[in-house]
Specification:
The chain is an all-alpha fold. Helices cover 71% and strands 0% of the residues. Helix 1 packs across helix 4, helix 4 packs antiparallel against helix 5 and helix 4 packs parallel to helix 7. The protein is elongated and about 60 Å long. The relative contact order is 0.09. The mean pLDDT is 82.
């Protein structure tokens, strides 16, 4: 039965994701993917020129899901504003919901440009999502800043860099200290009462 292009492409990605998780990226051949999907090599190459292109598409899929989940949280007005900010920032952990093989591939030295691409997607995608929440908080008198977008850009860039184990090596103690300093400075950026955001992050941590 013939399938439309998007359906077939999605099927290839689903199979590749499964195989990469089970056998590893290097341990999976294009023949493995062909056999499991049940298609000819020409059909595969019509959609993806190489195994690397398949991996690129999988990462775009994951980053799309990440931004979609963040947008869904941001739009949920039943969640308190500060809680929404914390949840959106926490959603930047790309490894959540993605296979270890995908993350290992992204963090390989030879894939530095791929890693940079993911970081660019996160910074450019999450900043406007967070900014909308900040505007809402400003209207309600919770925050006070003339630079809501720039503040969130700083927040996303810092969190996306320092809390990425591939960029900065942190011990558990270092990570705790960084989180405390991070929240302290976010409170200053948004002109929030001291401890107002820290209490929320502690609540999230205790529920993990």
């Amino acid at each position: 039965m013939r399938k439309d292009a998007e359906e077939r492409k999605s099927e290839i990605l689903d199979v590749a994701d499964e195989l990469f998780s089970k056998k590893g990226f290097d341990g999976t051949s294009t023949n493995d993917i062909l056999e499991k999907v049940g298609i000819a090599r020409g059909t595969l190459y019509h959609h993806f020129k190489s195994k690397e292109e398949i991996m690129d598409a999988l990462m775009e899929r994951y980053s799309g899901r990440l931004l979609g989940a963040a947008q869904e949280v941001a739009a949920n007005k039943t969640i308190p504003i500060v809680d929404r900010i914390i949840r959106v920032v926490m959603s930047m952990n790309l490894s959540s919901g993605s296979s270890d093989e995908i993350m290992e591939h992204i963090h390989r030295p030879q894939n530095a440009l791929m890693h940079q691409k993911i970081q660019k997607i996160i910074i450019n995608g999450l900043t406007p999502i967070l900014t909308e929440i900040i505007f809402e908080g400003i209207e309600q008198g919770m925050f006070n800043t003339p630079y809501p977008y720039e503040c969130m850009e700083m927040v996303v860039t810092y969190a996306n860099t320092v809390f990425d184990d591939d960029m900065v090596q942190l011990t558990n103690h270092d990570r705790v200290t960084r989180i405390q300093a991070f929240m302290f400075n976010v409170e200053r950026l948004l002109d929030v009462e001291r401890g107002g955001l820290m209490s929320v992050i502690q609540m999230f941590s205790s529920n993990e």
